[in-house]
Design goal:
The protein is globular and about 35 Å long. 6% of the residues lie in helices and 23% in strands. With 70 residues, it is mainly beta. A two-stranded antiparallel sheet has the order 1-4. A two-stranded antiparallel sheet has the order 2-3. It has one domain. The chain has 1 helix and 4 strands.
């Protein structure tokens, strides 16, 4: 999912896959009783990055193309 991020800004990537605000956390993990928590990520620079939506990446929270093997 392409997102324009701002240098120094913190983002919270959804790890449970239940958020309605993908790729970011909306608290669904706590409402649904999972043990998963969002991953805190700080943008190193202002640019477009691609957050993982399939939750299979080995480069959390960014896409590494793992969705292609699903």
């Amino acid at each position: 999912m392409p997102v324009e991020v701002e240098a120094g800004k913190t983002y919270y990537w959804c790890t449970c896959g239940r958020s309605e605000k993908q790729p970011f956390c909306d608290g669904a993990h706590s409402r649904d009783g999972t043990d998963l928590v969002p991953m805190k990520w700080e943008a190193p620079e202002t640019k477009t990055v691609y957050f993982c939506a399939c939750k299979q990446t080995k480069n959390e929270p960014l896409c590494d193309g793992s969705h292609g093997a699903l």
